[in-house]
Amino acid sequence: MLISTRGRYAIRVLIDIAEQASNDFIRLKDITGRQEISQKYVENIMTLLSKNGLVEGVHGKGGGYRLTRDPSEYKIADILKVTEESLSPVACLECNAQPCKRLAECRTLPMWRELNDMVNNFFNRITLADLVKKDDNVSYLNSML
Question: At CB < 8 A and 24+ separation, what contacts does 117-122 make?
């Protein structure tokens, strides 16, 4: 499993929007300036996030993006599921994977299932609100390990 730039940037952008603590629309130009990310690249990410209901976007004067719900309601797992093709460590555990012909005698499958569960459980315990907390962010995340 490798989290792509798209997944990492999506989380950064959503944190940035949450940090503004505003119900107003945040200009994409302001977000990309603060995050030092290409505006064109973030536009594609925002389209994906918008289509999946994670942000609301408005074009034109006064436009921008805002969260559709409270940051505490955004699980990092949900964000990564939108941006990544899969978080599974092996192909046989991906959604809609073809059943493996070696399933019955696979000695490694229990190990991969456990790793898959660990990764998903970890990202399901962390919310966007947890990452917005600047002062105790590191200690909070360390306590989860």
Answer: 119/1, 119/87, 119/89, 120/77, 120/87
Q: What is the DSSP string of 21-68?
A: --SSPBPHHHHHHHHT--HHHHHHHHHHHHHTTSEEEE-STT-EEEES
Beta bridge partners of 67: 55
Q: How many CB atoms lie within 10 A of CB 128?
A: 24
Most distant pair of Cα atoms in the chain: their distance: 61
Residue 144 has pLDDT above 80, yes or no: no
CATH assignment, 5-144: 1.10.10.10
Q: Are 54 and 67 in contact (CB under 8 A)?
A: yes
pLDDT at 114 over 90: yes
Mean predicted confidence (pLDDT) in 97-107: 83
Side chain identity at 32, as an amino acid letter? T
Q: Return the C-alpha torsion angle 19, 120, 143, 14, nearest 10.
A: -10
